[in-house]
Write a structure and sequence with these properties.
The chain has 7 helices and 6 strands; from the N terminus they run E-H-H-E-H-E-H-H-H-E-H-E-E. The protein is of the alpha/beta class. It has one domain: Phosphoglycerate mutase-like (Rossmann fold), CATH 3.40.50. Strands 3-2-4-1-5-6 form a 6-stranded mixed β-sheet. Helix 6 crosses helix 7. The two termini are about 30 Å apart.
Length: about 210
Amino acid sequence: MPNNNYCTLYLVRHGETEWNFNRTIMGQKDSPLTEVGVEQAHTTARELKEINFDAIFSSDSLRAHRTAEIIKLDRQLAIQTSKLLRERSYGQFEGKPAEEYSEAIRSLLEQTKQLPEEDQWKFKVKDDVESDFELVSRFITQLREIAVAYPNKTVLVTTHGGCIRMFLMRVGAFARGALPGASFQNAGYVKVLSDGVDFFVKEVKGVSIPKGVE
């Protein structure tokens, strides 16, 4: 069982953006929050208002930083940014319709199903698109650094849906493939305990798994 020296992490996805609404691939490009996205962030802020955060970290993407500002409320905390918390790099597909990306990689994803699971994690659909392993490795590296720096503390981390989905599958909270794209809702969050090595997922709010996906 986790002890009192574990850091409590709240991983929050940013609110809806204009490109989310238009189904455009963002990756490490950016798009402002919609009015709905701002309200989603305010809703999460209300849900977490009683949490005594000791620090706030955010992806350096404006959409994640804006979400952190909303959730911060009147807490006297600086928002620390990190590139390691960014969304997956989608390379050539950033700024293009999500349907175009899905069509381009559909046959490749079918091929990966024949691979051993660890090879599936490391498979790259294109040279300039981060693999699942590349994404989750840098993300977990940052979470471990935070956990080591803030033992027995509570930290807010605003980030991206792809990061959170890959994290949940990598640490075994969900089976690989159980959380397809868009299955983690805007402004949803995950409560995690960590000592800088292990992760214990305590609460997940925001998962919406399509029918037929287990």
